Amino acid sequence: MTHKILVVDDDADFTEATSTLLRAKGFSVVTASSGEEGYSKARLEKPHAILLDVMMSHASEGIDIARRLAEDPATKLIPVIMVTGIQKSLNLPAAVEPDTLWLPVRIVLEKPVRPEELLRALKDALKT
Amino acid sequence: MLSFFLIIVVLGGLSAVFEYSSIKRNVIAHAQYRAQNNLKAANAVYDGDLIRTTMLNYVGILGVSALFAAALAFLLAGAIAKPLTRFAAATGTLAGGDFTHRLESAASIRELTTLADAFNNMTDKLYEREVSLRNKNEQLAIINGRYLDLIGIVSHEIKGILASMILNTASVRDGMLGTISPQQKNALDSVLRNLEYFDTTVRNFFNLSRVEKNDVALSRSVVSLREEIVDVSVDAYLRQATEKEMAIDNRIPPSYCVCVDPSLMQMVFNNIIGNAIKYGFLRGAIVISLVETESETTIEIFNTGRPLTPQQVSGLFKRFSRVETKVDGKIVRGTGLGLFLSRETIERHGGVMRCEPRENGNAFMFTIPKVTADAPSP
């Protein structure tokens, strides 16, 4: 069975790099360049997992979309992997860590992400 | 001074009383001898009286002179001491940063007036210089703030570009997009190494802009040092350590707790372990250990390698100080920011960081004071 992955990121190069890797590894890929587009495609395409950036048109766009996806009965079961350029070590007012209410995602990966790290996270997310 | 003055007054008074009574007595005796026509005795009384009177006059003059000198000294001392005391107080005020205070001229003593004028002139000049320095510092702070903002923005943009470059390069190098030849793999290894170096540099610049702007707050919590911090760093650098066939001996006791900002402390361990691998010898060793005292925990990260020279150690923790050395025939250089940021972080935790070159390598040590989670930052 081919797993469908939705990649939501406003960085076209990163979206392309991720898509190329995932397709080479046998995944089917759908992309979106904004949070709103990502939310619509998540409802429409019903992907098996979502790779979601944090900072897009505004600083917390990815976080807002993750919450909407978690609240929506049509998408709440889709595992979300957050892939962000925000450094965890920067100690922002709120940690960029998975949390049921604050950040309902499976895992947060920090860019630059290595291919094996990305594939491992996806594999773990698809298992559950 | 006052007691000396009183002694002189008392002595003068006594000699005056003695002289008066002695002259009175001798005048009576002289008159009696004259009445008895005993001129010899009368003259003797007169001569003795004259001698005594002369002597007493000398004593009196001496006493009055001493009295005058004492009074003069007292007045002079007062006239000099008071302005000098005011001068000392004004100097203290000036030293405390108050440039508004001015000395009044001591009209009675010319030299003191000159001194007061010179002091006031100096204060005026110092005030002008202080205002000028303050203005320049404010301008510098504005320029520095813009520079740091710029570094932050540029670093963030470059980080985004690097993210896709590293993902693409690593995907090709690891054969995930198709088989590549060993030569192609070697070339991509080199590209990836440079990209990773670039990424570390950009990351450090980004961190620098935030640390310098005091934008990174310390958020302490009690964490298990080994499981939550050191193991995470060791895992993150395992691939690089394996590539250099280095053994990492993590001797931090399980469940040993420290009260630190976990993410910032992670950055410190990442930096030092990353350096230990980068500057350590091929097939070398890295040992991570701790020593505990009542008040603090000292962490030591040792790696086998070329011991740093005293000159290299002295500049090691300075911003933009880059240690360039040959490791296994290859030139290795740092970004000049990692250790600066690590030491800043340790100091914000109230600890100290230092480097100790040893016979067969280098040890980096830092202390973590034992505090509670709600302790204020130093």
Question: Could you please describe the fold and organization of this structure?
Answer:
The complex is a heterodimer of chains A (128) and B (378). Helices cover 38% and strands 18% of the residues of chain A. Chain A has four helices and five strands; from the N terminus they run βαβαβαββα. The model of chain B has no long low-confidence stretch (mean pLDDT 82). Helix content of chain B is 63%, strand content 14%. Chain B has 378 residues and is of the alpha+beta class. In chain B, the strands form three sheets. A five-stranded mixed sheet of chain B has the order 2-4-5-9-8. Classes of the chains: A alpha/beta (128), B alpha+beta (378).
Could you list some keywords that capture this structure?
heterodimer; A: 128 residues; alpha/beta; five-stranded parallel β-sheet; 4 helices; 38% helix; B: 378 residues; alpha+beta; five-stranded mixed β-sheet; 9 helices; 9 strands; elongated
